[in-house]
Specification:
Length: 353
Amino acid sequence: MPQAVKWMDGTDGVLELIDQRRLPGEFITLLVRDTRRLHEAIRTLAVRGAPAIGVAAAYGPVLALQSLGANATTVDGLKAIVEACDFLATSRPTAVNLFWALDRIRHKAQKVCQHPQLTLGELHEAILAEANAIRAEDIEMCRAIGRHGEALIREGAGVLTHCNAGALATAGQGTALSVMFEAQKKGRSFKVYADETRPLLQGARLTAWELQQAGIDVTVICDNMAGWLMKKGRIDLIITGADRIAANGDAANKIGTYSLSVLAKQHGVPFYIAAPSSTFDLSIAGGAEIPIEQRESREVTHLGGTATAPEGVAVYNPAFDVTDAQNITAIITEKGVVENPDTARIRELLTER
Ligand code: MRU
């Protein structure tokens, strides 16, 4: 499994990221030593996918501490951590895992700083331990999601997915793709259709690459082919990831996911979202409140540096859309599966299990 986010220990530790902008052509890792570079890596999608963004960001305050001078105090350290969290929170708006991870680090730092004798070294140790815990928990959550979902993929099934919710999008083996990896471990053969996922082609570049590496039968299709495949009876189920799930189950994911859910309803195809509890935002009631990232027009007007639209043409480029809970057959989490998700069922799963 590719490791999208790795921490390399040392006197000054370094964050190692797979540069996902270069895949599948080149497998290159980035060594990130400061928060400015980390912010850029997240903003430009070198590291992407909701859980991976959260895990990578968790190491940002650690890098900020390491950048302080030799005479820095614990007060300077806490200030640097809070500033790093505020700065990294501006990198991308939709995936709630980013804010969840940064909040965890900030709270941890504030808590340990209540000890009057705390040294800067101990502060560093405490927040590095918290970042490592976030990463380790993500790896575990990914596995558990796969185990909870694998039975949904029957022998010979046709599975459609959108964008990339694989190892590259998490610290572990992915969310939607984890379900596939676990079904494969059970010895089942099935066929995956990967939407290419315009405009940045995460499906064609990343999902197809991951599944091919894993020896899973994968076929890339253009996004506009999905409905026809459903009509032809080639799709038995759809599984995607999510970037933020509201309290009522409305789920933001890569632009195009909502259209798939409508097509799925029309053709009687079950539509699943696979996501860890760090992707739920119970502070918001419904999907209308999820902030949707707007990205630059060049992503739509150019392909590999070549213009595919006339210069100066107006472009609308939202990176995500929201699928209504009523279109979701079930949400697969590390705690179990919520069928027909609604506010009560989600609260019960997340708070009582
Ligand atoms: O813009 P991206 O590539 O970060 O968008 C990623 C997605 O939409 C994924 O489906 C989502 O983050 C789930 S990843 C487990």
